[in-house]
Design goal:
- By secondary structure, the protein is of the alpha/beta class.
- The model has no long low-confidence stretch (mean pLDDT 98).
- The longest helix has 18 residues.
- The chain has an eight-stranded mixed beta sheet with strand order 8-9-10-7-11-12-13-14, covered by helices on one side.
- The chain is built from eleven helices and 14 strands.
Length: 324
Amino acid sequence: MKLGILGAGSIARKMAATVRGMEGAELFAIASRDPERARAFAEEEGAERAYGSYEELVNDPAVELVYIATPHSRHCEDALLCIAAGKPVLCEKAFTMNAAEAERVLFAAKEQGVFVAEAIWTRYMPSRKIIDDLLASGIIGTPKVLTANLSYPIDTVRRLIDPELCGGALLDVGIYGLTFAAMHFGTDIERMESSVAMTDTGVDASESITLHYADGRMAVLNHSMRCRSDRMGIVHGTEGYLVVDNINDPLSVSVYDAADTLIKRVEMPPQITGYEYEVAECAECLRKGLTEPPSMPHAETIAMMRRMDALRAQWGLVYPKERR
């Protein structure tokens, strides 16, 4: 499968490293609005073709899948460009700026019969099933409370503090806590409460989110781009608890009984970067003629965007692009 990448930033570099280590996948083309940057990327990462515009890449008949690695603010525009050219899309999270954009992209994809997937990598990783199987086994009894946090000191990165680029902690790191809860506690949320601290530029810097489920379970999530956290995810049950080391890229799962005794530990399997699982699922979907990935159905993408829209509404956070 010949992969083309839109955007030549750090996340594109990580995808390039991933594809180099995979069988059956090839980094074929890179596009940047800066032709020199595209050429440098191609030379350094081993791409066969470099383009100075996104239009050139999506119109290259040899490209079989396009990975969108541009800022959140561009995702809708770039995805629609790919879809119009009939190119399958793997779009980096957050999928779009808001749910309205997500719906627009997915409607266009359905109309054109084009495959589209959201690249929220933890949805595709084997750790997801490992955790779910442990919970289903009853090893910690009945799960009642989930806690998760993800924070990095990244509030000096322009993309993350610029409202024009849809910056803020929520769309960049907060989505991982929300995804961890969605994967392991589901989406039957009765109400959602939150508190937030804003940056001087007007985007969210840190937030605490509490999800109340219809059956009485609760998830408490904390995210920030002002500090580094332990990145742990914990599921608390009636007979013990389960600890996930790093919800952003799980390394291991440890299970403790009610006496705080470690009773089981599962190490995650070796991987290239972790991105290979989403690429492999995209390739399999294309072979089968599917238009959405089983690990991240379109309905889940829209539901997550609506959840984040609701949180921003609580905070009064409106991106400039949404006002236009």
